[in-house]
Design goal:
The complex is a heterodimer. Chain A is mainly alpha-helical. Chain A contains 14 helices and no strands. Chain A has a single domain, classed as Ammonium transporter fold, CATH 1.10.3430. Classes of the chains: A mainly alpha, B alpha/beta.
Chain lengths: 332, 428
């Protein structure tokens, strides 16, 4: 401030102070902190996957996390942006992708997956906060459509020998009807006694992680709860209309990507709404579409596509918002 | 600094500080030099007094020809310099430095103009008390275009950690009573509403006025929220309470008016909270114009490079760049922040987490607003995303996960739009 003469008396031996704007406090939340908490919440499910599938699962998850970070690093370098790998977002994307893949996924598959997630899913839209779709869901959708057989959990995991029926419940449901999933009790499903992605079968761990994230305020409970409610109600309606063809809510709730979708995918910040009613619509819509795709669609699991479709309508439904105070509606 | 709790479901609870018993007041001894800041640009040609002019304590110093801006000298001495000072957002002030003389003399102009409480009039308040502690909003009382029909006396302090008004309520309730009765007579407004925190309710019942309780969490005591919650009136976006006939005045300002008439002297000492680096706070009384460095000296506070000095509360105050910044009639707190306690501000983009949406008391779509503000599209921000509904509480920046300076974006947008509108109005 050039025309300030007030302080020139003893300016020479004065300290320079930080002059910035209000507020002078911050509550201490950080992007990195959120992401590390998310990693912590996902840990039980991953450890369980590693326990079941052994070193192969360790390989897939580690490769997924590390290549996601590397892709982010390369992109930041190429586009001459400041390096953003420290915020943990790339690591989280890699980790979630690893959790969705079967333990037998080949190395090139994982690397392509993280490339799609980081570069196409997130960075080309402008990086963190600018992606219209959940990067992980984009990657899984592209992988699923391109290499269908890798995602055939029954075939992929055929060499594993467990003490439980190593069957992917949703595929069994699709191909053989409700009687095929009768053997799955809720307890078994919750304890991960089913085939599926590395980190997506241990229902109890995912629920615990989800509750942790909700309590910490890192994910929005409205989205998770309405997603689950959407699944329960829709599958119940199907089940009531024809119990022989359509499975009850329990199978839909604890099989496939439902729980990881409810707590880790649908709640992704940038691609989900922030207002209360839109959050409920978004979650319930995703749940509804999931069951619709599973029951009458072509694909075995609908979570990924349901979330992508709801990502698409998110900007529209998020327009339902409370009126700002003092707002005068003109020409009304 | 209050950090977020482990459980993040609830909004951050920022409770206002409350004074349990009357704390002791630390008096700061007279400084060598005080500086008074008058809220008008420096204009050398029209100055009414020169350097070396002798002033007495409580003397009104009219600044310029054809202007009724004045300051009230808080000390006896000699004017040592008159200069220009630029504050936040380019606001220009006239800074008058007064070198303090040994013996104090009290000026009599106010006393002879009043004679006693009975002769209080709006003109006297307007002509003498604008610079009194608490900054009584004297111009609002006599504005013919915007008549006032309700006066809200804020006994609760609006920002966190500040206890000035609470202290006045505890120590000087008689002055407040006197001030209110004077205000009633001179303004003719009978609708006086006291806004107080829960702990003040019983103390204030002595005033026999309507006392309304404000919530004890920030930002309930900000004027716009008092309007909404207590008066049940909605201030239209971009307007102030006075535009719809409500005038806010702090308890300290009311007490200043009361004391001025009962003693025949314009009060010249300001009471404020001093917050040290270690978080300890003390109530301080100092002459208006005392440089902050003298206060730090009295409390043995040493400042280092890259520390921060804040005038006002932690959420709405403003930081200053000099240790010699003077205490003003509206300085309710001086906060010293250590270098290591200053939160980082990042250039990260909004991640759309929605924390600000849930915390905003004005229901603004901050996640969208901030994208427009970052792009400099201020008009679109004002038209579509409720820029002017902001009541300036600062909570959005406080909770921002990306550590964005959202509040600063909002304020500079309002400032830039205001400038553009003035330019349009003057240039046709």
């Amino acid at each position: 401030m050039a025309d300030n003469n007030m302080v020139d008396n003893n300016m020479a031996d004065n300290n320079k102070f930080i002059v910035s704007h209000a507020p002078f406090w911050h509550d201490g939340s950080r992007i990195s902190l959120r992401n590390y908490n998310m990693a912590l919440a996902a840990l039980p499910a991953i450890l369980f996957g590693i326990y079941y599938y052994g070193m192969q699962a360790v390989g897939v998850v580690s490769l997924s996390i590390s290549t996601a970070i590397i892709w982010e690093f390369i992109f930041c370098r190429v586009t001459k942006r400041s390096n953003t790998i420290g915020d943990g977002n790339a690591a989280i994307i890699g980790m979630l992708l690893g959790m969705l893949l079967p333990a037998t996924a080949p190395w090139w598959f994982v690397i392509i997956g993280t490339f799609v997630a980081i570069i196409i899913g997130k960075q080309i839209f402008g990086g963190i906060g600018a992606n219209p779709f959940n990067p992980v869901a984009v990657a899984v959708a592209i992988l699923m459509l391109s290499w269908e057989n890798v995602f055939d959990f029954n075939e992929a995991l055929i060499n594993y020998d467990f003490d439980f029926a190593m069957v992917y419940p949703l595929a069994a449901l699709k191909h053989f009807g409700v009687s095929a999933v009768d053997s799955f009790s809720i307890g078994n499903l919750l304890m991960g006694k089913q085939s599926g992605g590395i980190g997506s079968t241990f229902g109890l761990g995912l629920i615990a992680g989800g509750i942790y994230l909700i309590i910490r305020g890192i994910i929005r409970w409205e989205i998770s709860i309405s997603f689950l409610a959407g699944i329960i109600i829709t599958s119940l309606i199907f089940n009531i209309t024809d119990p022989a063809r359509y499975a009850g809510p329990a199978v839909h709730l604890f099989a496939g990507y439902t729980l990881i979708g409810a707590f880790f995918l649908a709640t992704e910040d940038s691609s989900s709404p922030v207002n209360f009613i839109p959050m409920l619509i978004y979650g319930a819509g995703a749940g509804f579409l999931t069951v619709l795709i599973r029951n009458i669609g072509f694909y075995v699991d609908g979570v990924i596509f349901a979330i992508l479709i709801m990502n698409l309508v998110n900007p529209l439904i998020d327009k339902i918002r409370p009126k700002a105070i003092g707002k005068v509606v003109e020409n009304a | 600094m209050i950090k977020r709790s482990f459980i993040g479901l609830s909004k951050p609870r920022l409770a206002y500080g409350s004074l349990e018993d009357t704390p002791s007041l630390k008096q700061i001894p007279a400084s060598k030099e005080v500086t008074l800041l008058a809220d008008c640009p420096f204009d050398k040609k029209n100055l009414l007094f020169k350097k070396k002019a002798v002033v007495k304590t409580g003397q009104k110093l009219l600044l310029y020809k054809e202007s009724d801006e004045y300051v009230v000298s808080s000390v006896t001495g000699e004017v040592s310099s008159i200069s220009s000072y630029t504050g936040d957002f380019g606001r220009s002030y006239t800074a008058i430095a007064i070198e303090v003389a040994g013996d104090e003399e009290i000026d009599n102009e106010f006393k002879s103009a009043t004679g006693g409480s009975k002769d209080a009039s709006l003109a006297i308040i307007k002509n003498f008390l604008a610079f009194a502690p608490g900054n009584p909003p004297v111009k609002l009382f006599s504005n013919k275009d915007k008549p006032i029909n309700t006066i809200v006396v804020c006994c609760a302090d609006s920002d966190l950690l500040i206890t000035t008004n609470q202290y006045i309520v505890k120590s000087d309730i008689d002055a407040i009573k006197n001030g209110i009765s004077i205000l009633k007579t001179v303004t003719g407004v009978n609708d006086i509403i006291m806004a107080a925190s829960r702990s003040q309710m019983s103390e204030l019942s002595a005033t026999c006025e309507k006392v309304n309780q404000v919530n004890d969490t920030y930002p309930s005591a900000l004027p716009h929220l008092i309007m909404k919650d207590i008066l049940g009136k909605m201030v239209p976006a971009g307007k102030n309470p006075e535009d719809i006939g409500v005038c806010f005045i702090s308890a300290e300002a009311v007490a200043s008016i009361g004391n001025a008439f009962s003693s025949g002297q314009i009060p010249v000492t300001k009471i404020f909270t001093l917050l040290n680096k270690d978080g300890s706070n003390s109530l301080v009384s100092a002459r208006i114009g005392t440089p902050a460095s003298d206060i730090f000296k009295a409390f043995n506070i040493t400042l280092n490079e890259n520390d921060r000095i804040i005038f006002g509360g932690p959420m709405t105050g403003s930081s200053v760049y000099s240790e010699d910044h003077p205490v003003q009639p509206d300085t309710d707190a001086i906060i010293v922040q250590d270098k290591k306690d200053i939160p980082v501000i990042s250039d990260y983009p909004c991640t759309n987490c929605g924390d600000c949406i849930r915390v905003c008391p004005a229901n603004i779509q901050i996640n969208l607003l901030v994208r427009f503000l970052e792009a400099g599209q201020y008009e679109a921000a004002a038209d579509q995303y409720d820029l002017y509904s902001c009541i300036e509480c600062g909570l959005c920046s406080y909770v921002c996960v990306s550590e964005m300076p959202i509040f600063q974006y909002i304020r500079s947008a309002k400032y830039e739009l205001g400038r553009a509108n003035t330019a349009e109005a003057t240039n046709g």
